[in-house]
Structures are given as C-alpha cells and as structure tokens.
Backbone:
C-alpha cells in the first residue's frame, strides 16, 4: 500500500479528495498556491462553505499537510492526484493553463514508480497529447517509469445523498499496469465501484459526455417551459405525468440558467475538440446558447409581472433572493443569478439582493430586509431556508405584491390564493 499521496490543488475538487485520502489512512500532502488556503487547511478549517467539507477538514487536521512548497508536497509521493481548475476563456475556448503549469511543476519532482492521476476535467486527448509530453520532460517515460491515468472527478457540492466516497468512478490509463494500480488505489478510498476503461481518451470523454447530456436535457426542458408558457400549460404537471412512465423518460426541470464550473463549461471542451478534428456540434452548441439565454428570459418575465401591476421595472421595489448557482452552497461560479443581478441592476438602481451563503455580494443583511414591501420577489436560488420562509402567509405579512419563482420551488396555488401574483418558468 502506498504511503504518501499528494493532491495538487485544494479547491472544490482537490480539498474533498485530499480529506478522503487522509481519512483512509494515507499520508497526505496538499499542494496549494494560495497561502490563505494553506493556513486554513492546516488549522482544520475549510475555505469552502460546505457543511460536510467543513466537518471533513476538521476531522483530518494534522493528517492532511497543506503546503505551497512543491518539493515538500511531491518529492516523496507515491501517488499524485492533479485536481486543478480547467476553465474556459471569455470566448469559450478551453483554458488548460493550470493543468500545464501543474504538469511542469510535477515533472521537476517526478520519480520512478510514481502513479500520476489527472482528475481535472479535460477534453479527450489532453492526457496523451499535453500531459504526457510535459511529464516526460523529466526524462522518465509514462507506462515504463511512471504510471499515468485519467480518473474524471465526480463531486456534487451540497449533495446530501451522494458524497465523494460513495460515487462510482472510472479509470483509463496509458497502459494496463497504470490502470490496474489506479483501480486498486481508488477501491481503497471509495465505498463504490471503480470501473476500468480501455483507454485514457474514453475516461476523458466520460465526464464531458455526462455534463453535456445534462446541459442538453436542461436546454430541452427550458425550451419546453417557454413553449408551454405560451400554450398555458404548467410544465411541472406535464413532468409529473411523464414521470409515471417507468421507462424512456428522465425528469429534468427548467430554471434561470446553468451554473457551476461543470455543465456551463464542459460542453465547450467537447465542441472545441470536435471542431479541431473536423466535426461541428450543432446540437450541443444550440443547447449552450439556450441555457446561456435563460437569465435574459427570466428578467423579461419579471418585467411582464411588474407590468401587470402597473409598475415600471426602473422604479419598482425588487428583491433578488439567491446568488449562488445552486441551493445551500456558497459557490457563485457561472451563477445565472449573478447575470440576473447584472441585468436588473442596470435597470433598477435600488434592487435589494440577499443570499445568506454569499454575504459579500448581498446588499442587505436579512431576508426580511430584502422582501418587506417588495413589488416583486425574485427567487433565483432555492436555498432551503428561502423555501421554508417564503410561505404564502409570510409573503402576505411582508406585503409582497408579486413573486417570480425562477426555480419553481414555492407554493404557487397558496401564493395565488393569498392574493399575490405568481409566475414561474413554464407555469
């Protein structure tokens, strides 16, 4: 059993991975360039506001050594897990700068017998064409002197049902030995299946396909919701009906857009790579366009709702609730709520925005302060505390005139019965 594991990057992927590895008894080093994060982790504190992760970091205090010293983190490692970001540029092209930098650093400390695992999401071909040549600048050869595999990360922040430890994983390596060693390692830290694939490219394509599948289906249901809005059909009732079929249907739900760093980004990795090889992903590109346009559509519905009250958006009392990209997390990366905030703030200078998970971007200190007397409350993120607090009775007590429920999470019938106007997406 290897004694030392190094995790490169202690962000949304690397930190939970490092905590799990340390929990399972491995000597664990975390290489992190942000000194504030290093200090916090070594104090047993999580820089990410996630209840499960806060607990996990505290539990491995003293077992997980965070450092900005690459030599200290990497030189004695038996296994190195690369968990650095893979964003897209402003013009939606893959940005592999963090991966390339990590590989150059690792190459200076690579030694025989190491197993290198790329967990960062990349397009098919990156490990063979970019990672491998960079690592082999060390003079060592992948598949001969060191192992090299791709194991796409699968982390869903805030998921109460599926934690990192019980999510199945897939592995593909440069050779059979690399794949076998990686499978052995992951089976030691996971309480879930680990499936070997016959190539690195297949493993790389798994994550890209998973998130493109979700993006396409979310775009489909968003378009259906817009259509049903014109047809006077409640989309949730239709989804409820379709879900009674035990085969051939999987429910997806409309919303104000797609956030996080996976679904809004990963399809672009596929689109760009396929274009390089002479294939144009028209369907996937259309899905991206549809989902990117949802914040604009949401704002248009708010304006329609205000018009029905005789209130111009410029002077209305607006309350925007939720700024993170999903419920009960503080992650605002690619959050559609931030785009809604930008669009509405350009029209209404007195808009009140509140998110208990994102106080730094809120301009009021409480839900009541945001909502009291609002002409329109816009629920952009369905935090459990919001859904619980925004009952028809409480909304009426706060003298709210209208609700735009971008997450379709509130009691539509109850709100209407309380004399408050209601609008959801597709309902």
Residues:
């Amino acid at each position: 059993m290897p004694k030392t594991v190094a995790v490169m990057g202690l962000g949304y992927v690397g930190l939970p991975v490092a905590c799990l590895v340390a929990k399972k008894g491995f000597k664990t080093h975390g290489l992190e360039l942000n000194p504030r994060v290093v200090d916090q982790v070594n104090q047993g504190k999580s820089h990410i506001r996630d209840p499960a992760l806060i607990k996990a970091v505290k539990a491995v205090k003293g077992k997980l050594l965070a450092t900005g010293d690459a030599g200290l983190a990497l030189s004695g490692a038996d296994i190195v897990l690369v968990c650095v970001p893979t964003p897209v540029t402003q013009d939606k092209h893959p940005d592999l700068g963090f991966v390339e930098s990590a590989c150059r650093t690792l190459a200076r400390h690579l030694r025989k017998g190491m197993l290198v695992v790329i967990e960062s999401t990349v397009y098919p071909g990156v490990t063979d064409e970019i990672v491998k040549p960079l690592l082999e600048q060390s003079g060592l050869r992948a598949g001969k002197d060191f192992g090299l595999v791709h194991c796409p990360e699968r982390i869903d922040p805030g998921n109460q049902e599926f934690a990192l430890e019980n999510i199945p994983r897939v592995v593909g390596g440069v050779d059979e030995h690399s794949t076998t060693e990686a499978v052995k390692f992951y089976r030691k830290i996971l309480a879930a299946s680990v499936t070997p694939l016959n190539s690195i490219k297949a493993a790389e394509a798994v994550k890209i396909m998973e998130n493109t599948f979700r993006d396409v289906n979310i775009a489909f249901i968003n378009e259906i919701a817009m259509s049903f809005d014109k047809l006077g059909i409640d989309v949730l009732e239709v989804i409820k009906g379709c879900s009674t079929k035990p085969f051939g249907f999987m429910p997806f739900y409309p919303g104000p857009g797609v956030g996080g760093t996976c679904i809004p980004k990963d399809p672009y990795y596929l689109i760009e790579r396929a274009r390089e090889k002479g294939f144009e992903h028209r369907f996937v590109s259309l899905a991206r366009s549809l989902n990117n346009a949802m914040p604009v559509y949401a704002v248009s519905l708010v304006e329609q709702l205000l018009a029905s009250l005789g209130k111009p958006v410029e002077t209305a009392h607006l309350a925007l609730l939720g700024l993170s990209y999903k419920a009960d997390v503080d992650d605002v990366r690619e959050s559609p709520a931030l785009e809604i905030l930008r669009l509405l703030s350009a029209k209404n200078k007195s808009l009140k925005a509140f998110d208990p998970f994102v106080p730094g971007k809120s301009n009021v200190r409480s839900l009541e302060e945001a909502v009291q007397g609002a002409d329109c409350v816009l629920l952009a993120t369905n935090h459990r505390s919001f859904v619980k607090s925004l009952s028809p009775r409480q909304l009426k007590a706060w003298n709210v005139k209208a609700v735009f429920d971008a997450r379709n999470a509130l009691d539509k019938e109850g709100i209407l019965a309380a004399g408050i106007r209601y609008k959801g997406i597709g309902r």
Q: What stands out?
A: DSSP finds 17 helices and 13 strands in the chain.
